Amino acid sequence: MSVQFAPAPHPLSAIAAHAAGSFAKPAGDHTPFRPSGLLPAGPVLEFSPDEQIFGQGEEALIFFRVVTGTVRTCKFMNDGRRQIQAFHVAGELIGFEAGDEYSLTAEAVSDCTLVPYRRNALDAQLATNEALSQQLFAHAMRSLKQAREHAVMLGRRTAAEKVAAFIIECAGRSSDGRVANLAMTRQDIADYLGLTIETVSRTLSQLERDAVIELPALRQIRLKNPAALRSLNS
Amino acid sequence: MSVQFAPAPHPLSAIAAHAAGSFAKPAGDHTPFRPSGLLPAGPVLEFSPDEQIFGQGEEALIFFRVVTGTVRTCKFMNDGRRQIQAFHVAGELIGFEAGDEYSLTAEAVSDCTLVPYRRNALDAQLATNEALSQQLFAHAMRSLKQAREHAVMLGRRTAAEKVAAFIIECAGRSSDGRVANLAMTRQDIADYLGLTIETVSRTLSQLERDAVIELPALRQIRLKNPAALRSLNS
DNA sequence: CGTCAGCTTGAAAATGCTCAATGGAAGTGG
DNA sequence: CCACTTCCATTGAGCATTTTCAAGCTGACG
Lengths: 234, 234
Hints:
The structure is a homodimer.
Chain A: H1 13-16, E1 45-47, E2 52-54, E3 62-68, E4 71-76, E5 82-88, E6 93-94, E7 105-108, E8 112-118, H2 121-128, H3 130-156, H4 159-173, E9 179-181, H5 186-193, H6 197-209, E10 213-217, E11 220-223, H7 226-232
Antiparallel strand pairs in A: 1-8, 2-7, 3-6, 3-8, 4-5, 4-7, 9-11, 10-11
Helix pairs in contact in A: 4-7, 5-6
Chain B binds a DNA duplex through helix 5.
């Protein structure tokens, strides 16, 4: 059986306006995400690398907008294994949860500044403020899309493909699309890609030997052959 | 730096009311999901096993509620590799997208019946119908939570842990929590867990040899030692 | 200049995959 | 009712990729 209905205008397009690619903030989009009509719960907060912003299971009273720096959101298993869900940069919302508790942990990757918002301030706003509702809905759908792409990568890509995809993501966010500046360690990359730190390192070295990338510094990747990278992305 | 704010009531609790565990529809919840005030776009549709309900990239004019049967949503890579995102049972919404296009493919696993809803009928409703907005928001957040759990499994679990988690998920949805009735093939399970069909089969056989489960029929798993299964779930 | 954290590299081991053959249940047609 | 076919699942053997374990290396910082 196949389903055919007459075409019609796309009603959720407004809601979808913010939906973007894998990384939450598309390269070149420099409009800061600013929940319309919602007032910060306090002054901008600063975090140092590896400092926890909120923890899985804690009461989710506050959500945040990243102003500067990079934040990682991750899940920990009992035995300490870690899966990083995403890296968040300027403009991204983190800690916006359905339940009463944060479902994951957020930590600063680099020095970070974040604007806090009170979750309970939303109630009044959501009822009256259409734009705000749409923004938050868009945020949820964008996160969902990102999570699904991530799942394909984790489940069905080889180490080389994972690393290539990661480099492309990073380069896509830099102003110069041919250089990826990494805020995160190899361990962070490994936990994002579902690999070990050694495999990440070896794969990067191999890509450099193959003249696909250059590694001028520890936290910098220069794309010499983006086409080859993209071909790995199948 | 640590963030402390005074406790407050939980504003999004209503929105979160539907948020559940890994599988979209929690075991024992028999209230059908019925988008309040939204009229179906037509009669109930029937699909046979492996029939496509909608395809990745098609215009997302319609979304569906599963009435009976099991649906899989999946992503395909260029070379045919497949990653199943989730299995959907009665009550679940599928095809509710942010963008203009379906971001994944939905196919019937078993014989299925689905109620179609017109996406553009939402516009008018969303503005006025608070309950509907909340339901759809809850749907998005629940899907997001599920996708994140899935990512941890794909990235950081061994084959045995993946299979154990899958059995627990399935058993959790059955009326008798000690029997998992599978609608899907081994290939479906493999593509859901990011494994091969052989590894799934071998792992199931091993669990049976270890007296953790019994395999009375091809599509049935009896839990003999649920504790052992759960311990694999770490 | 020494120390230390993070990164790279190597060798061995393990986990999961590929290829290939077998098994078994359901459906079909004689 | 029984062979035959077909589809799906299981099992085995060998192989590939990734992990593990164990050294070294490098650059930042005191």
